[in-house]
Amino acid sequence: MTEPKKIDPARIKSFIRRQGRATAGQKQALENHWDKYCLPPEQGFDINQAFGRQAPLIVEIGFGNGDSLAAMAAANPDINYLGIEVHRPGVGHLIMLLEQRGIGNVRIFHHDAIEILEQKIPDHSIAGLHLFFPDPWHKRRHHKRRIVRPSFLELLNKKLAVGGYFHAATDWRDYAKDMLNTLSADNGLKNTSPTGDYCPRPAYRPLTKFENRGLNLGHGVWDLIFAKL
Fold first, then answer.
1. Residues comprising the binding site for S-adenosyl-L-methionine?
2. N or C: which end of the chain has fewer CB within 10 A?
3. Catalytic residue flag (residue 135)
4. pLDDT higher than 70, residue 143
5. Which residues does the annotation say bind substrate (predicted)?
């Protein structure tokens, strides 16, 4: 009798490719400016060549519609920003924003973030990695799909430069506690919170409309910022 195939927890997908139609503007951005901003995941990746310069690299996993990423890049033109997103309409929206605002320090991978980190990003090259409002997988049986788990931290430690940081934000208290416990157990990372738990939202992370609406309704948001030792 054949034994069932074992599933490697490190390879469990932490996302679902959402269905959704792109707007006319997003479609136009995808068709006309894809090659300007998007990097082919099947080819080699050279950071300096991709951006045309050498600068600190900030990576954002799952940037959604790209509003926050575009705002951060516009406010920090001396930093290179690499966004990774599997939702194609979101990629189109970010490209549209970059074109409208003349933002040139952003590049995009439309692909699985874990594979990009593993295969494309050099070790010890990331100054900061952002994970804002990831899918909380709130049902207990789905917790194994949460991206912040030991295998992710092992990869994170390889890719962050010394002194680099990991910044996660969530509006799910349970996931915030889970991430805090997981991150705190890693000896290669140090919590930058003065109280040993969560940090106030730093000025560089824009307050989104969705987040602001939730805060006005009394919902909580938790920021975790850990630095590599």
1. 60, 85, 112, 135
2. N
3. yes
4. no
5. 139, 171, 208-211
Determine which one of 35, 67, 123, 135 is catalytic. Answer: 135
CATH code assigned at 165:
3.40.50.150
Do the domain assignments include residue 8? no
User: What is the rounded average pLDDT of the residues 2-9?
Assistant: 44
Buried b (16+ CB within 10 A) or exposed e, 180-199: bebbeebeebebeeeeeebb
Q: In whole angstroms, what is the distance from residue 70 CA to residue 85 CA?
A: 14
3, part of any domain: no
- Domain count along the chain: 1
**Binding site as annotated, residues for substrate:** 139, 171, 208-211
* Dihedral pair phi/psi, residue 192, rounded to 5°: -90, -5
Is residue 120 situated within a structural domain? yes
Q: For the chain, how many helices (H) and strands (E)?
A: 8, 7
| Cβ-based neighbour number of residue 68 at 10 Å | 23
Binding site listing: 60, 85, 112, 135, 139, 171, 208-211
**Residues 71-123 pLDDT 10s:** 999 999 999 999 999 999 999 999 999 999 999 999 999 999 999 999 999 99
17 in any annotated domain: no
Dihedral, CA of residue 114, residue 115, residue 120 and residue 125, to nearest 10: 10
